[in-house]
Write a sequence for this structure.
């Protein structure tokens, strides 16, 4: 959907000029339609005090998920209405809010929020996805980020380069970007560099267990890529092989240094 989370990013799915009655009618109609945007209409329904029971009847989405979405909305309201303390930032990150969402809710800049978060040592850790299910030692481990305490990331002091993958495949997008990322990884390893891939699409060859030295299943956003860069400390980042998705964040990465 091109969104940074469950809304709170400056993009409105409903025309703000509609009356409350018109909004409610539109929401109730769209809750019946299963598509990529429906989760945002669930949030809008909760904002207008449509009950979880009614949303369930219209959407057939399990109430467990609906209550979790409501919890996210409650945290969003808390961020918007309270002072941005260390405790609140940590709570927001544990609930999945991106820096750009927090920045939007507080009228700040994304980099400003990032600096504040890092100053107060609120940073993600990386958990291991064991590709061998414990039977053998996973030599090419997969990692994903979370805001907990224990870090399982296995970095090294070797020379390394990060390759940004293509992210989710879209209509009209072929396999050429994944092909390029794979061969970049092979070439880097041939000349003595570690190849570290960041990609959020598990259905690609570039995310196979034996393509790179390490793989991070992370969204291709400035925030998430910078988090990996700060942990891995690469000599460089290759952005041009993954198509438009990594190219869109290249200027932001350059600005961040």
């Amino acid at each position: 959907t091109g969104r940074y989370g469950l809304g709170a990013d400056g993009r409105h799915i409903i025309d703000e000029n509609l009356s409350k009655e018109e909004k409610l009618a539109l929401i109730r109609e769209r809750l019946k339609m299963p598509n990529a945007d429906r989760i945002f209409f669930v949030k809008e329904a909760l904002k207008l005090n449509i009950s979880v029971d009614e949303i369930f009847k219209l959407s057939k989405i399990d109430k467990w998920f609906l209550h979790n979405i409501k919890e996210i909305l409650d945290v969003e309201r808390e961020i918007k209405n309270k002072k941005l303390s260390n405790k609140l930032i940590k709570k927001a990150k544990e609930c999945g809010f991106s820096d750009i969402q927090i920045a939007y809710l507080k009228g700040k800049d994304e980099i400003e929020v990032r600096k504040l978060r890092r100053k107060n040592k609120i940073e993600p850790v990386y958990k291991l996805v064991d590709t061998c299910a414990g039977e053998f030692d996973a030599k090419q481990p997969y990692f994903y980020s979370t805001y907990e305490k224990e870090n399982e990331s296995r970095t090294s002091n070797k020379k390394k380069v990060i390759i940004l993958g293509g992210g989710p495949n879209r209509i009209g997008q072929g396999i050429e970007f994944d092909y390029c990322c794979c061969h970049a990884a092979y070439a880097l390893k041939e000349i003595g560099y570690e190849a570290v891939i960041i990609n959020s699409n598990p259905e690609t060859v570039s995310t196979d267990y034996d393509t790179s030295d390490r793989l991070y299943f992370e969204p291709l956003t400035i925030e998430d890529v910078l988090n990996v860069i700060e942990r891995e400390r690469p000599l460089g980042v290759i952005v041009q092989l993954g198509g438009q998705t990594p190219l869109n964040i290249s200027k932001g990465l350059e600005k961040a240094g």
Notes: The first strand starts at residue 125 and ends at 129. The longest helix spans residues 63-81. The chain has eleven helices and six strands.
